[in-house]
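The record is kept unedited without comment:

——
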Amino acid sequence: MQKRLLYLLACAGGILSCLTLNAQTQKAQVAHDTGRLLALHQHYQSVASLSAQGRLAEAEAELRVIVSTCREVFGKEHPDTLTSRSDLAATLAHEGKYAEAEKENRAVLAIRQQVLGKDHPDTLLSRNNLAATLQEQGRHAEAVREYRAVLDVRQRILGPEHSDTLDSRNNLATALNDLGRHAEAEKEHRAVLALREKLLGQRHPKTLASRNNLAAVLQLQERHAEAEQEHRTVLALREKVLGPEHPDVFLSCYNLALCLEAQSKFKDALPIMQRAQIGFKKSLGPSHPYTQSAGEGQRRIASEMK
Protein backbone atom coordinates (compact mmCIF):
# COMPACT_ATOMS: atom_id res chain seq x y z
CA MET A 1 0.00 0.00 0.00
CA GLN A 2 1.24 3.45 -0.83
CA LYS A 3 2.84 5.47 1.95
CA ARG A 4 0.33 8.28 2.09
CA LEU A 5 0.54 11.28 4.39
CA LEU A 6 -2.71 12.30 6.04
CA TYR A 7 -3.94 15.88 5.99
CA LEU A 8 -6.60 17.80 7.81
CA LEU A 9 -9.06 19.37 5.39
CA ALA A 10 -11.79 21.84 6.16
CA CYS A 11 -15.03 20.10 5.20
CA ALA A 12 -18.58 20.19 6.48
CA GLY A 13 -18.69 20.54 10.23
CA GLY A 14 -20.10 18.21 12.84
CA ILE A 15 -23.04 15.99 12.15
CA LEU A 16 -26.15 18.05 11.42
CA SER A 17 -24.40 21.15 12.70
CA CYS A 18 -26.59 23.37 10.51
CA LEU A 19 -29.95 21.60 10.78
CA THR A 20 -32.55 24.29 11.36
CA LEU A 21 -35.23 22.32 13.14
CA ASN A 22 -36.24 25.20 15.38
CA ALA A 23 -39.40 27.08 16.25
CA GLN A 24 -39.44 28.97 12.97
CA THR A 25 -39.22 25.77 10.96
CA GLN A 26 -41.92 24.14 13.05
CA LYS A 27 -44.28 26.99 12.18
CA ALA A 28 -43.74 26.44 8.48
CA GLN A 29 -46.64 24.99 6.56
CA VAL A 30 -44.73 21.80 5.75
CA ALA A 31 -44.12 21.09 9.43
CA HIS A 32 -47.68 20.33 10.56
CA ASP A 33 -46.77 16.94 11.89
CA THR A 34 -44.96 17.72 15.13
CA GLY A 35 -44.49 14.02 15.73
CA ARG A 36 -42.34 13.79 12.61
CA LEU A 37 -40.29 16.77 13.79
CA LEU A 38 -39.81 15.18 17.20
CA ALA A 39 -38.66 11.98 15.51
CA LEU A 40 -36.15 13.99 13.47
CA HIS A 41 -34.76 15.51 16.65
CA GLN A 42 -34.42 12.07 18.20
CA HIS A 43 -32.60 10.74 15.15
CA TYR A 44 -30.33 13.78 15.21
CA GLN A 45 -29.43 13.15 18.85
CA SER A 46 -28.74 9.52 18.02
CA VAL A 47 -26.44 10.49 15.13
CA ALA A 48 -24.47 12.88 17.33
CA SER A 49 -24.00 10.19 19.97
CA LEU A 50 -23.03 7.48 17.50
CA SER A 51 -20.58 9.73 15.69
CA ALA A 52 -18.92 10.72 18.96
CA GLN A 53 -18.41 7.03 19.67
CA GLY A 54 -16.96 6.37 16.22
CA ARG A 55 -19.93 4.16 15.28
CA LEU A 56 -20.09 5.58 11.78
CA ALA A 57 -22.04 2.81 10.07
CA GLU A 58 -24.87 3.22 12.58
CA ALA A 59 -24.67 7.01 12.22
CA GLU A 60 -24.97 6.59 8.46
CA ALA A 61 -28.12 4.50 8.87
CA GLU A 62 -29.67 7.15 11.13
CA LEU A 63 -28.76 9.90 8.68
CA ARG A 64 -30.43 8.05 5.83
CA VAL A 65 -33.64 8.03 7.88
CA ILE A 66 -33.26 11.77 8.50
CA VAL A 67 -32.66 12.47 4.80
CA SER A 68 -35.70 10.45 3.79
CA THR A 69 -37.92 12.14 6.37
CA CYS A 70 -36.69 15.64 5.54
CA ARG A 71 -37.31 15.03 1.85
CA GLU A 72 -40.85 13.85 2.56
CA VAL A 73 -41.74 16.54 5.11
CA PHE A 74 -39.92 19.58 3.73
CA GLY A 75 -39.22 18.74 0.08
CA LYS A 76 -36.01 17.99 -1.81
CA GLU A 77 -34.88 21.63 -2.11
CA HIS A 78 -35.47 22.68 1.50
CA PRO A 79 -32.34 23.78 3.43
CA ASP A 80 -32.88 21.10 6.10
CA THR A 81 -33.04 18.38 3.45
CA LEU A 82 -29.88 19.62 1.79
CA THR A 83 -28.08 19.96 5.11
CA SER A 84 -28.98 16.41 6.07
CA ARG A 85 -27.72 15.15 2.68
CA SER A 86 -24.51 17.10 3.12
CA ASP A 87 -24.01 15.57 6.54
CA LEU A 88 -24.68 12.13 5.11
CA ALA A 89 -21.97 12.78 2.51
CA ALA A 90 -19.58 13.85 5.27
CA THR A 91 -20.26 10.64 7.20
CA LEU A 92 -19.74 8.53 4.08
CA ALA A 93 -16.39 10.27 3.58
CA HIS A 94 -15.43 9.62 7.21
CA GLU A 95 -16.17 5.95 6.56
CA GLY A 96 -13.90 5.98 3.51
CA LYS A 97 -16.83 5.62 1.09
CA TYR A 98 -15.50 8.38 -1.12
CA ALA A 99 -17.33 7.50 -4.35
CA GLU A 100 -20.68 7.51 -2.54
CA ALA A 101 -19.78 10.75 -0.80
CA GLU A 102 -18.85 12.31 -4.14
CA LYS A 103 -22.22 11.35 -5.63
CA GLU A 104 -24.12 12.85 -2.70
CA ASN A 105 -22.03 16.02 -2.69
CA ARG A 106 -22.58 16.52 -6.42
CA ALA A 107 -26.33 16.17 -6.00
CA VAL A 108 -26.46 18.69 -3.15
CA LEU A 109 -24.16 21.08 -5.03
CA ALA A 110 -26.37 21.02 -8.13
CA ILE A 111 -29.48 21.90 -6.12
CA ARG A 112 -27.75 24.60 -4.09
CA GLN A 113 -26.34 26.21 -7.23
CA GLN A 114 -29.80 26.29 -8.76
CA VAL A 115 -31.64 27.50 -5.66
CA LEU A 116 -29.04 29.67 -3.89
CA GLY A 117 -26.60 30.68 -6.61
CA LYS A 118 -22.93 29.91 -7.18
CA ASP A 119 -21.57 32.37 -4.61
CA HIS A 120 -23.77 31.40 -1.66
CA PRO A 121 -21.79 30.11 1.37
CA ASP A 122 -23.69 26.80 1.39
CA THR A 123 -22.96 26.28 -2.30
CA LEU A 124 -19.26 26.98 -1.72
CA LEU A 125 -19.25 24.55 1.21
CA SER A 126 -20.69 21.84 -1.03
CA ARG A 127 -18.09 22.57 -3.68
CA ASN A 128 -15.33 22.40 -1.08
CA ASN A 129 -16.62 19.06 0.19
CA LEU A 130 -16.80 17.71 -3.35
CA ALA A 131 -13.16 18.69 -3.86
CA ALA A 132 -12.21 16.82 -0.68
CA THR A 133 -13.82 13.60 -1.91
CA LEU A 134 -12.04 13.99 -5.26
CA GLN A 135 -8.75 14.44 -3.45
CA GLU A 136 -9.30 11.35 -1.32
CA GLN A 137 -9.81 9.37 -4.54
CA GLY A 138 -6.48 10.60 -5.94
CA ARG A 139 -8.07 12.96 -8.47
CA HIS A 140 -5.83 15.80 -7.42
CA ALA A 141 -5.99 17.98 -10.54
CA GLU A 142 -9.79 18.05 -10.30
CA ALA A 143 -9.55 18.84 -6.60
CA VAL A 144 -7.17 21.74 -7.29
CA ARG A 145 -9.61 23.27 -9.77
CA GLU A 146 -12.51 23.04 -7.32
CA TYR A 147 -10.53 24.36 -4.36
CA ARG A 148 -9.16 27.27 -6.39
CA ALA A 149 -12.63 28.23 -7.61
CA VAL A 150 -13.95 28.27 -4.03
CA LEU A 151 -10.93 30.24 -2.84
CA ASP A 152 -11.38 32.91 -5.51
CA VAL A 153 -14.97 33.55 -4.46
CA ARG A 154 -14.23 33.50 -0.74
CA GLN A 155 -11.33 35.93 -1.09
CA ARG A 156 -13.48 38.30 -3.11
CA ILE A 157 -16.50 38.18 -0.81
CA LEU A 158 -15.03 37.46 2.65
CA GLY A 159 -11.51 38.86 2.46
CA PRO A 160 -8.07 37.25 2.87
CA GLU A 161 -8.20 36.71 6.65
CA HIS A 162 -11.65 35.16 6.99
CA SER A 163 -11.65 31.66 8.45
CA ASP A 164 -13.38 30.19 5.37
CA THR A 165 -10.81 31.80 3.08
CA LEU A 166 -7.95 30.34 5.11
CA ASP A 167 -9.65 26.93 5.05
CA SER A 168 -9.72 27.14 1.25
CA ARG A 169 -6.05 28.11 1.05
CA ASN A 170 -5.18 25.19 3.32
CA ASN A 171 -7.13 22.74 1.20
CA LEU A 172 -5.72 24.06 -2.05
CA ALA A 173 -2.21 23.69 -0.67
CA THR A 174 -2.79 20.04 0.27
CA ALA A 175 -4.02 19.28 -3.24
CA LEU A 176 -1.03 21.08 -4.78
CA ASN A 177 1.20 18.97 -2.57
CA ASP A 178 -0.47 15.79 -3.79
CA LEU A 179 0.15 16.96 -7.37
CA GLY A 180 3.86 17.22 -6.62
CA ARG A 181 3.90 21.02 -6.63
CA HIS A 182 5.61 21.08 -3.26
CA ALA A 183 7.17 24.55 -3.41
CA GLU A 184 3.79 26.16 -4.11
CA ALA A 185 2.17 24.08 -1.40
CA GLU A 186 4.82 25.01 1.16
CA LYS A 187 4.42 28.71 0.41
CA GLU A 188 0.64 28.49 0.87
CA HIS A 189 0.87 26.47 4.07
CA ARG A 190 3.38 28.87 5.61
CA ALA A 191 1.15 31.83 4.75
CA VAL A 192 -1.93 30.17 6.24
CA LEU A 193 0.01 29.08 9.32
CA ALA A 194 1.25 32.62 9.95
CA LEU A 195 -2.27 34.04 9.68
CA ARG A 196 -3.80 31.35 11.87
CA GLU A 197 -1.15 31.87 14.54
CA LYS A 198 -1.91 35.60 14.49
CA LEU A 199 -5.68 35.25 14.47
CA LEU A 200 -6.24 32.06 16.48
CA GLY A 201 -3.09 31.42 18.49
CA GLN A 202 -0.50 28.67 18.36
CA ARG A 203 -2.60 26.02 20.12
CA HIS A 204 -5.82 26.31 18.11
CA PRO A 205 -6.75 23.05 16.30
CA LYS A 206 -6.72 24.81 12.92
CA THR A 207 -3.27 26.23 13.61
CA LEU A 208 -2.06 22.75 14.50
CA ALA A 209 -3.66 21.41 11.32
CA SER A 210 -1.62 23.92 9.34
CA ARG A 211 1.58 22.81 11.07
CA ASN A 212 0.73 19.17 10.36
CA ASN A 213 0.19 19.97 6.69
CA LEU A 214 3.38 22.03 6.49
CA ALA A 215 5.27 19.08 7.97
CA ALA A 216 3.80 16.87 5.24
CA VAL A 217 5.15 19.21 2.57
CA LEU A 218 8.59 19.21 4.15
CA GLN A 219 8.51 15.43 4.38
CA LEU A 220 7.70 14.98 0.70
CA GLN A 221 10.64 17.24 -0.12
CA GLU A 222 12.81 14.84 1.94
CA ARG A 223 13.52 17.50 4.54
CA HIS A 224 12.95 14.86 7.17
CA ALA A 225 14.64 16.51 10.15
CA GLU A 226 12.51 19.64 9.75
CA ALA A 227 9.39 17.55 9.21
CA GLU A 228 10.10 15.39 12.27
CA GLN A 229 10.46 18.45 14.47
CA GLU A 230 7.13 19.83 13.24
CA HIS A 231 5.33 16.49 13.64
CA ARG A 232 6.63 16.06 17.20
CA THR A 233 5.58 19.58 18.14
CA VAL A 234 2.10 19.10 16.69
CA LEU A 235 1.68 15.71 18.37
CA ALA A 236 2.67 17.08 21.78
CA LEU A 237 0.35 20.06 21.48
CA ARG A 238 -2.57 17.97 20.22
CA GLU A 239 -2.20 15.58 23.13
CA LYS A 240 -2.21 18.52 25.54
CA VAL A 241 -5.05 20.46 23.88
CA LEU A 242 -7.29 17.68 22.54
CA GLY A 243 -6.43 14.71 24.75
CA PRO A 244 -4.54 11.50 23.94
CA GLU A 245 -7.52 9.72 22.34
CA HIS A 246 -8.52 12.40 19.83
CA PRO A 247 -8.46 11.28 16.16
CA ASP A 248 -6.14 14.18 15.26
CA VAL A 249 -3.60 12.75 17.69
CA PHE A 250 -3.63 9.43 15.84
CA LEU A 251 -3.19 11.28 12.55
CA SER A 252 -0.09 12.96 13.98
CA CYS A 253 1.20 9.59 15.19
CA TYR A 254 0.77 8.13 11.71
CA ASN A 255 2.58 10.98 9.97
CA LEU A 256 5.40 11.06 12.53
CA ALA A 257 5.88 7.30 12.16
CA LEU A 258 6.18 7.68 8.37
CA CYS A 259 8.75 10.43 8.86
CA LEU A 260 10.79 8.27 11.22
CA GLU A 261 10.53 5.34 8.84
CA ALA A 262 11.88 7.50 6.01
CA GLN A 263 14.95 8.14 8.18
CA SER A 264 15.34 4.40 8.94
CA LYS A 265 14.47 5.02 12.60
CA PHE A 266 12.44 1.84 12.65
CA LYS A 267 12.54 1.15 16.40
CA ASP A 268 11.16 4.60 17.10
CA ALA A 269 8.61 4.42 14.28
CA LEU A 270 7.02 1.05 15.10
CA PRO A 271 5.31 1.82 18.45
CA ILE A 272 4.06 5.18 17.13
CA MET A 273 2.56 3.52 14.05
CA GLN A 274 1.01 0.85 16.30
CA ARG A 275 -0.61 3.59 18.36
CA ALA A 276 -2.02 5.16 15.19
CA GLN A 277 -3.41 1.84 13.98
CA ILE A 278 -5.09 1.03 17.28
CA GLY A 279 -6.51 4.54 17.53
CA PHE A 280 -7.86 4.58 13.97
CA LYS A 281 -9.39 1.14 14.44
CA LYS A 282 -11.18 2.26 17.58
CA SER A 283 -12.41 5.59 16.22
CA LEU A 284 -12.97 4.79 12.53
CA GLY A 285 -13.37 1.02 12.39
CA PRO A 286 -11.17 -1.76 11.00
CA SER A 287 -12.12 -1.28 7.34
CA HIS A 288 -11.44 2.45 7.09
CA PRO A 289 -8.61 3.38 4.68
CA TYR A 290 -6.70 5.16 7.46
CA THR A 291 -6.86 2.07 9.67
CA GLN A 292 -5.72 -0.13 6.81
CA SER A 293 -2.88 2.26 5.89
CA ALA A 294 -1.65 2.28 9.48
CA GLY A 295 -1.86 -1.51 9.66
CA GLU A 296 0.13 -1.84 6.45
CA GLY A 297 2.65 0.68 7.81
CA GLN A 298 3.01 -1.32 11.00
CA ARG A 299 3.68 -4.55 9.11
CA ARG A 300 6.09 -2.83 6.71
CA ILE A 301 8.14 -1.23 9.50
CA ALA A 302 8.28 -4.49 11.41
CA SER A 303 9.60 -6.30 8.34
CA GLU A 304 12.19 -3.57 7.79
CA MET A 305 13.55 -4.20 11.29
CA LYS A 306 14.38 -7.86 10.51
Remarks:
- The mean pLDDT is 88.
